[in-house]
Every structure is written in C-alpha cells, then in structure tokens.
Amino acid sequence: MLSSELSPSEYNPFYxxxxxxxxxxxxxxxxxxxxxxxxxxxxxDIPTAKLGFAYGPExxxxxxxxxxxxxxxxxxxxxxxxxxxxxxxxxxxxDQDIYVPESNAxxxxxxxxxxxxxxxxDSTIALFRSFDDIALKRMGMASGSAMSTRAMGFIICxxxxxxxxxxxxxYLN
Length: 173
Known about the structure:
Elements: H1 16-20, H2 28-44, H3 62-84, H4 96-102, H5 110-130, H6 133-137, E1 139-142, E2 145-148, H7 149-171
Antiparallel strand pairs: 1-2
C-alpha cells in the first residue's frame, strides 16, 4: 500500500497537510515501523528540561504536544478499526483542545511518554498488519467526511511527521 495510491476522495482535505508531510511515495507498514523508530530516537535526544517549554502564551508545552500525538493516534486507530470492520456508524470528531489539558502531560516523565508512545504505535502496527486489501479500502464517516481505513494509517504517520517538524522548529531551537 503506497501513499500515492490514495485518492483525495479517501480523506477530508483538512488532512492533506499530513499526507503531504510524508514527503512523497511511502509504504504504509514501512512508514508505521520506520516512523516509530525515528520518533523514539527523536524523543530520546530531547532534553528533559524542554518538556515543560511552550514557545508562546496559550501554546502547548512540548510534553503536551507529545501526548497530543499519542492521543490522536489512538483516535485515528479506532476510526481505522471501525472502518475496516465495516461499521457504517458515523464517527464524531474530537476536540484536541479538550484532550490536551486532561492528558496529565506535565506530570509524566520522558520515559513514561516514550513507553506510552511505543505501546500505542506497536498496537497500530499490529492493527494495520491485520487488515487485508479489502479492509484497507473500506470507507467510513468521521467528522462529517468519508475516509478510508488506509487513509487513517497515512494520516497517523503524517500527523506525527507534521508535529516532529513543529517541535524541531518551535521547541528545540
């Protein structure tokens, strides 16, 4: 499954930024696995003192951004499961600004965040490995838009890539 095989009709245009963040043609399972390894290495190199840093007023701390990545992956993973299992029930969106303060990010050690991330990503990898081509192409409704199972996988990868770029640019300079 290549990102270039995705049709714009498989996801809401809002998510195009995330698909584009993958930088071209990538294989879904390879990107999920490679993305895990790259992200864990990236996290390992972040100074612990930076976790409480926010680059501006009303902006999330770095720890909150990391928990947002984990929370969003959980939500997208759940959507993918529902679509793959042919559940046609429309799914509502989620308000990240409600989730972040409730994530308890400021009380988590870097190692806890890394362990939680790895656990979630390993679960995502196992889930997407379990899908056949039919399940990957199945469509569902989320946030008022038609979405495919495979689009959810690429969105997971692209969402993480997008936030890694933001972290490098705004939190680690």
